[in-house]
Amino acid sequence: QVQLMESGGGLVQPGGSLGLSCTASGGDFKLYTLAWYRQRTGKRRTVVARIAPGGDSEYEDSVEGRFTISRDNDKNMMYLQMNNLTPEDTAVYFCKVEFYGFWGQGTQVTVSA
Q: Pairing between strand 67-72 and 10-12?
């Protein structure tokens, strides 16, 4: 069993930046493919970015070049740096251990003037 906890959400103005963190406990963190998902109000949850155990990453098209996913296997942590935010980025953001289906509780990100 892996427990995940997100932090770092909040309110930010359009064009601003925000960094999210995901802390993991349990399991063998360094072996997992990890991901950030988001869920806008009334929409289904979709993947934003994914990072493999070795650090290779991939992004959803709308965040490519603006968001950066990273991980620190020594600290059992994953990060999402979000730059040039737009109102369309407003959502609850979740971290997930891919293939095993472990989810965090989510953190709200609101982009508004």
A: unpaired
What letter represents residue 113's amino acid?
A
Residues 79, 22: Cα–Cα separation, whole Å: 6
Q: What is the DSSP string of 2-58?
A: -EEEEE--EEE-TT--EEEEEEEESS-GGG--EEEEEE-TTS--EEEEEE-TTS-EE
Each residue's pLDDT tens digit, 25-46: 988 899 999 999 999 999 999 9
Q: Which among 53, 43, 41, 33 has a CA at the least distance from the CA of 95? A: 33
Are 22 and 95 in contact, with CB atoms under 8 Å apart? yes
